[in-house]
Structures are given as C-alpha cells and as structure tokens.
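Might I ask for a little of your time on a matter of protein folding? The record follows directly beneath this note:
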Amino acid sequence: MTDWTDPDTFARALERVDTKEKGNCFEDFEEGDVIEHDPGLTLTRFGNEQWMSQTLNHDPAYWRTDAAEARGFEEPPIHPDYLTAATLGITVEDLSEKGGYFLGRTDVRFPGTPVYAGAELHVESEVVDCATSSSRPEYGIVSWRTRGTDAETGEVLCSYERTNMIPRREPVATDGSGAATTEADGNDEPDLPEAFVTPEGGYFEDFVAALEEADDENAAVAYRHERGRTQDDVTVASLPLATLNTAKQHHNVDVMSDSPSGDIVTYGDVTRSTALGHARSDEETWREVGFDDESFHTFVAVGDTVYAFTRVLEAENDASSDEAGTVRFEHIAFNQDDEPVYSGTRTAEIRKRSG
C-alpha cells in the first residue's frame, strides 16, 4: 500500500498533479463585462473600530455616540476608509488575485447619507477598459468601475475606478517601445517654491489663511505630520484578510519570499488609511467627500514605517453644512527612507471655527 505521506512519495505526487488556480488572467476580462462578486461582507462596529484603531484614525464621531450626534449622525457611522477597503477587498478574488501592479484608483465617492454598522455590502465591477502593455508583454492593463451597494436597499455606498496590470496566460510580442525612458539631467533642480507655509491650526479658516499667505509670495501650503506607524502582523496580514482581500501578497510568505520585497506586503488601503489618519489628526474633519488620482509607488512590508506629508491645494466656503467648508488636499505617504509609497488628492469638508 502506498504511503502518500512518505516525503519522497508525496514530493513526486506534487510534481505530477495539476494546481487548481485561483483568480483570472488578462484574457478573462472583456470590456463591458459585469462581475457580481460572490462574497459579501457585513460592516460591523468591531471591524470598523479595528480598522480605525490600527490605522490611527481617531475622529471621535466614529467612536462616540455624543460626538456622532453633534456631527449630525444617528450613531457612530462606518468610516469611509474601512468602507473603501472592504469594497475593494471583496473584489480581489475575481479581479486581481493573480497579482500584478496596482496602477491607480480615482473617482472614489461615497453617498450623501451615512453608512452604519449592520449594512450588508454587495459589490459588482464592470470592465471599462482592457489594453496591452508594450513594456511588459507578460501583463495586460485592466480598468474596472466598482460599486459597493447596500444589499437590502440597493443604495450605492462606495464607488471608484481602479487600474491594475494583470498577468497574461501567454505573453504578447512587442517591440518594447512603451519602455522608453528619458535620461534625467543631473543638473536639473526640482521646481520647488521658495517657502512653505504651515496652517496655524486645523480649522477651515486656518487653511484659508495659509493659502492667502502663500499667494502673497512664492510659497506652498505644505507640511509633514509627526506620527508614524510601523507595519506589523496586524496591519500587514490581519486587516486585509478581515476585508476578504485574498491576494497572496498579503498572506503567503512562501510565495513572496522570491519577490522584490522578500516578504508579505501591506494592503495599499492600509498604507493609505494610515497616512490619512496622520493627516486627519492635524485637522478638524467634518465629512469625507472623495478621492482622486491615487497611486501606489512601491511596496510597504513588515517593519516599514508609514509617515505622511500634506499639501493644501484649495479651499472654498461651500459644503453640505454651514458649519464646514471644503478643502482639497494632496497627501503623500512615505517610508522611513523618505520614499513616497502612496499619493492621491482628497476632498474633505473641514469644520469652521465659527460654526
């Protein structure tokens, strides 16, 4: 009788059997396809608080009933960062589990009404574009429009468009023309302003005053945030799995040992939310409106520390409440070596001091 657990026997069996693969290749996507993602996720208070606590998002309106009611909520709502991460996490098995570079995400939007614990999240994605990659023939480029909806009411809770490189089953022949790069001139100096202005506080009026000061000279309203968050097993492995993100990059050390990182890496939405948590700690956030032009520049692994840098782009008085104004920011997350790891623009309503 064959002992299948004998190491030599089992090794030979492994060499001969096929692997039932997970995920889809580039050839499996066609523009116009709509994918109903089978997993669902109930947004819970525990999941919300776990995400917020580990990414240093401490806005009291998402923790305390009295603070939530003062902001116009019935109870502490689901944080937009957790909602975004959960929406994307559910899609990974169907869209990007095969791997490939996350090229960007934009038009991240939320409903006008708050989302509360107990909402059952249903997610679908439409393929909006498929393109070949002339620089990487082993990959194609796919863009999806994803919507997370309330399974009971059908209300859209979160939507965005994201783009990934997706492995092909068979590489295509190219001339490599897309890989052309321009030699950098070592004598070129970065085109930075002469001065940087830091807002005096975190209220809407403080951002307006800083922008006005910057307009009077060749200056930019830009500053770094003091806090940092070193990545550990919870942020790198536990948080993505809690959002049903099955990408091997976040939980399979064996596979990732031969990758450039040499280890599992942080889910991009954890990196992003951590940087935004640092930024929000220096402002009086009222509501999140949306995010655009998000990019992830390099991997973040266990032991790396995520810091944040903010540039204030513009401010306007209009908002959903008279107690707030609207500010548009550019946020850049960077690591302990001062390398950018994430960037994106964010529009948020900021509390007025006079409100």
